[in-house]
Amino acid sequence: MTTAKTPEKDHSGEQPAMRTPPIVSPEAWEAARQQMLVKEKAFTRSRDALAAERRRMPWMAVEKGYRFEGPRGSSSLLDLFEGRRQLIVYRAFFEPGVFGWPEHACRGCSLGADQVANLAHLNARGTTLAYASRAPQKDIECLKARMGWTMPWYTITDSFDTDFGVNEWHGHNAFIRDGDKVFRTYLINERGDEAMGSTWSYLDITALGRQETWEDSPKGYPQTAPYKWWNWHDNYNSAASPDPKWVEVSSAKEATFQRSDAESK
Question: What are the phi and psi torsion angles at 127 (to 5°)?
Answer without folding.
Answer: -130, 135
